[in-house]
C-alpha cells in the first residue's frame, strides 16, 4: 500500500527571523506555554478593546463570531511573531480552528477552578505529542491583580492535579500577564483557570485554537542543536525528550538510558499512585524497543478496559463526552514506534471497541512510520463503533495514505451517520490535499451540517483539494453565507 507525504498546499511561508529557537521550543515542552507579542502600536490593541466593549454592550458575547464581528483580530495572528511561533510549534500548514471565545473577567470576580479545555465537540485523545495549541490574546495591559489566566506549569501531561479548587491545590501557579498584544501559546492539555480580578478594571482575553495538519518530519523552528538541553529540574524529562524527538522528526525510540530498571519493574510502575512515576516508567519502557511490546500490549488492554466508565461519562461541564488521556502503556507503545506496529495491527481485531479505538490512536501517534498498518486501518473505517471509525480516519490522515482505495473510503465517510466521523473524514481530505473531486458533493452537503464546526472543516477540505470544482463550490457557499461585520440590529442597512 503506497504511503505518500502529505500535501504542502496551504503552507504559510514564514520569515525565519521570527521562528522560535531550540530553548524556546524546549521551554514550551516542559512548561506547557510560551509568551510572544504582536507589537503593533498601542492604538491598534486599544481599538480592538473598544470594539469588544461596544459588542458586549450591544449584543453580548458573540461566541465563535468574535472574529467576523471584529476582523482586525486576525491581524494579531498574522503578525510575524505569532506566525513564527505557531509555525515553530505546529508546522507550516497549521490551521486556526473555528472555535474561539472572548473571556470577560470583570472586577471582583472570584475566578475559576483548575480545568482542561475539551476538544470542542470531538473526541481527540490527550497526549504529550500535542496536536493543538491554545492562543490567549490580551487586548489590554494585564497585570496580576486583573485576574489573568493562571496556569499550572509542567502539569500538561497529567490527568489530575492535587485539587481543582485553587484554595486547596498545592501546585504553584504561573499568572500569564503582559502588556496589550501579549499572546500566550499554551499546550492544549494545560491545567488553567481565570484567576480572581482584584482590580477595578475589566480583563478581556480572546482564546483561539490552532492545530497541526502534518506530522513533524523535521524541526520547523530555528534549530541548532539536536541534543535535549531543557530544564534540569523537569520531573517529566523522559516524556519531554520524547516530544522533542518527535518534533525533530525522529520517530524511532532513543537508546535506553541505563536506569537499570527491569521491564517487569517498569510495567508495575505504570500502576504507581504517582503520575510522575507512571509517566517516567512509560517513556523509559518506550526506549526498550520490541522486547517489551507483548507485555505492553497486555497492559494497554487492561488499562483501557479499566477506563471505560470514565471514558463514556458525560459530566455536567462536558455533556457531549470526554477527551480521555492516553493510558501509560499506550504512550509507551507510541514511543516505541514502528517496532510496535505488527502487534498493534493484531490488536485492531480486539473484541472490545474501546481497545480498538485506543489502538488506532496509538498508531496515529506513531505517525508515518506505520505504513504497513494502512490496510488494517482502512478496514477499521467501517467498524461498528463510531469512535473506532473516527480514530481510523484520523490515523490515515496522519500517516498520509493517498491511495485510490483511501479516497473511496473518505468519499463515503463524509456522509457517515456520526458527526465526529464526518469531521475527521473532512480533516483527512484536507491533510492529504489531493485533487479528489469525487468528495466534493459530500463536502458541499457538509457545508450545511448540523454541527457548526463540521461546516468549517468541510470548507477547509474544499480549500485544500483546490481543484476548479472545489474552488467554485467553496466560493459559492462562502458568498451565500457571508456575514457583514458592520451590520448590527442598530445598523441594519
What can you tell me about this protein's structure?
This protein is of the alpha+beta class. Among the domains are: 16-211, Jelly Rolls (Sandwich); 402-493, Leucine-rich Repeat Variant (Alpha Horseshoe), CATH 1.25.10. The protein contains 20 helices and eight strands. The protein has a five-stranded antiparallel sheet. It has a three-stranded antiparallel sheet with strand order 5-4-7, with no helix packed on it. The longest helix has 17 residues, at 42-58. It is globular, with a radius of gyration of 22 Å. The termini are far apart.
Question: What's the CATH topology label of the domain at 16-211?
Answer: Jelly Rolls
Largest sheet: 5 strands, antiparallel
Order of helices and strands: HEHHHHEEEEEEEHHHHHHHHHHHHHHH
How many beta-strand runs?
Answer: 8
Please describe the topology of this protein:
Layout (H helix, E strand, L loop, with lengths): L21 H10 L1 E5 L4 H17 L7 H4 L3 H6 L1 H11 L4 E11 L26 E6 L11 E3 L22 E3 L5 E6 L4 E3 L8 E9 L25 H11 L15 H7 L5 H11 L7 H14 L1 H5 L15 H9 L4 H7 L5 H14 L7 H7 L5 H14 L4 H10 L5 H14 L7 H7 L5 H14 L2 H14 L12
Antiparallel strand pairs: 1-6, 2-8, 3-6, 3-8, 4-5, 4-7
Helix pairs in contact: 1-6, 6-8, 7-8, 8-11, 9-11, 11-13, 12-13, 13-15, 14-15, 15-17, 16-17, 17-19, 18-19, 19-20
Amino acid at each position: 500500500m503506497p504511503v505518500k507525504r502529505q500535501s504542502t498546499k496551504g503552507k504559510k511561508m514564514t520569515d525565519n527571523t521570527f521562528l522560535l529557537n531550540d530553548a524556546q521550543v524546549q521551554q514550551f515542552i516542559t512548561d506547557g506555554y510560551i509568551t510572544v507579542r504582536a507589537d503593533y502600536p498601542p492604538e491598534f490593541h486599544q481599538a480592538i478593546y473598544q470594539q469588544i466593549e461596544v459588542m458586549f454592550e450591544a449584543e453580548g458575547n458573540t461566541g465563535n463570531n468574535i472574529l467576523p464581528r471584529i476582523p482586525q483580530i486576525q491581524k494579531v495572528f498574522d503578525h510575524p511573531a505569532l506566525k513564527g511561533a505557531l509555525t515553530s510549534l505546529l508546522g507550516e500548514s497549521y490551521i486556526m480552528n473555528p472555535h474561539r471565545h472572548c473571556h470577560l473577567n470583570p472586577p471582583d470576580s472570584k475566578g475559576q477552578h483548575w480545568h482542561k479545555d475539551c476538544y470542542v465537540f470531538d473526541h481527540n485523545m490527550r497526549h504529550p505529542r500535542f496536536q493543538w495549541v491554545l492562543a490567549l490574546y490580551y487586548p489590554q495591559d494585564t497585570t496580576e491583580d486583573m485576574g489573568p489566566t493562571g496556569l499550572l506549569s509542567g502539569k500538561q501531561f497529567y490527568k489530575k492535579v492535587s485539587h481543582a479548587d485553587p484554595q486547596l491545590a498545592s501546585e504553584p501557579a504561573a499568572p500569564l500577564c503582559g502588556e496589550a498584544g501579549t499572546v500566550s501559546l499554551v499546550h492544549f492539555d494545560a491545567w488553567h483557570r481565570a484567576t480572581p480580578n482584584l482590580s477595578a478594571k475589566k480583563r478581556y482575553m480572546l482564546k483561539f485554537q490552532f492545530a497541526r495538519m502534518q506530522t513533524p518530519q523535521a524541526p520547523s523552528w530555528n534549530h541548532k542543536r539536536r541534543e535535549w538541553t531543557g530544564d534540569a529540574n523537569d520531573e517529566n524529562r523522559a516524556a519531554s525528550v520524547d516530544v522533542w524527538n518527535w518534533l525533530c522528526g525522529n520517530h524511532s525510540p532513543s537508546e535506553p538510558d541505563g536506569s537499570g530498571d527491569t521491564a517487569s519493574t517498569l510495567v508495575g510502575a505504570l500502576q504507581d499512585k504517582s503520575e510522575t512515576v507512571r509517566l517516567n516508567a512509560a517513556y523509559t519502557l518506550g526506549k526498550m524497543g520490541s522486547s517489551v511490546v507483548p507485555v505492553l500490549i497486555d497492559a494497554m488492554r487492561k488499562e483501557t478496559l479499566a477506563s471505560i466508565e470514565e471514558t463514556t461519562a458525560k459530566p455536567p461541564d462536558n455533556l457531549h463526552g470526554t477527551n480521555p488521556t492516553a493510558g501509560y502503556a499506550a504512550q509507551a507503545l507510541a514511543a516505541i514506534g514502528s517496532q510496535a506496529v505488527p502487534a498493534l495491527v493484531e490488536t485492531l481485531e480486539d473484541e472490545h471497541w474501546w481497545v480498538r479505538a485506543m489502538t488506532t490512536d496509538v498508531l496515529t501517534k506513531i505517525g508515518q512510520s506505520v505504513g504497513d498498518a494502512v490496510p488494517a486501518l482502512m478496514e477499521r473505517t467501517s467498524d461498528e463503533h463510531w469512535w473506532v471509525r473516527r480514530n481510523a480516519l484520523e490515523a490515515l490522515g496522519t500517516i498520509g495514505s493517498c491511495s485510490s482505495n483511501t479516497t473511496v473510503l473518505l468519499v463515503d465517510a463524509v456522509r457517515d451517520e456520526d458527526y465526529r466521523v464526518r469531521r475527521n473524514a473532512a480533516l483527512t481530505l484536507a491533510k492529504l490535499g489531493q485533487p479528489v473531486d469525487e468528495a466534493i458533493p459530500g463536502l458541499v452537503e457538509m457545508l450545511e451540517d448540523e454541527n457548526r464546526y463540521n461546516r468549517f472543516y468541510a470548507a477547509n477540505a474544499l480549500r485544500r483539494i483546490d481543484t476548479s470544482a472545489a474552488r467554485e463550490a467553496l466560493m459559492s457557499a462562502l458568498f451565500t453565507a457571508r456575514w457583514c461585520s458592520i451590520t448590527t440590529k442598530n445598523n441594519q442597512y
